[in-house]
Amino acid sequence: MNRFELLNPIYTNKVIKVIKENYRVTTVEIDHKLDALPGQFLMVWIPGVGEKPMSIGNNNPLTISVANVGPVSEKIWELKEGEVISYRGPFGNPFSIPKDAKKILCVGGGYGVVPMYFLSKAAKENNIQSTVIIGGRSEKDIVWEKQLFSVCEKVFVTTDDGSKGAKGNVMIELEPIAREYDAIYACGPERMMKAVAELCKKNEVHCQVSAERYMKCGVGVCGSCAIDGKLTCVDGPIFSGAEILKLGEFGKKKREASGRSVDL
Hints:
- The protein has 264 residues and is of the alpha/beta class.
- 22% of the residues lie in helices and 34% in strands.
């Protein structure tokens, strides 16, 4: 075993439950109680295919959700109960809740809602109320709503086409109530998170967002996940709203697997 493996052990554990959330998202529960905090991530490994960063939806049992959008995610999406999965982690900085907070608001776009369950669960365990706003293109794109109802005070849903909840994006529900909360957290499309951070800055509300960028190593070696000099894997993935608004690329450009920078 080399030094990298000692610092980043590879776990291999059994899949104990598979939940088909919708037409493209699958949730996988793993037989492992992982010492992780809300906002941290895993590097999930498929031998012969590659690795992919995954948000942690729950630490006990360890739970991830994956959208079928590429070679690695396709293999994870196809997993069945009783099969095994390999991963490294947890990595990255977690969300933090202000010591005097009594009410928090979580905003999740698409499957960015997944780590919001873990955060809301942790808040509830510490007697902090949480409200969640879920956004999706349509009703069929809404995931984890039922799970969130078990740990949240309120759950709001927005869809672009109005097929479920309020018609529009998450800002429809967020703007009128932002000042009612001690802290606001967001995960999802970068443009959405940038809008959340700007609203929080305007209303002087504590804000944190979870940046998701292409990663190869997860430990700050390869530089693939850089945003204006910040490495998402080690400097993030959780950034304060103030920090993220200083990064000119955020919400505007992303780096593809080839290393090419493209507009969002």
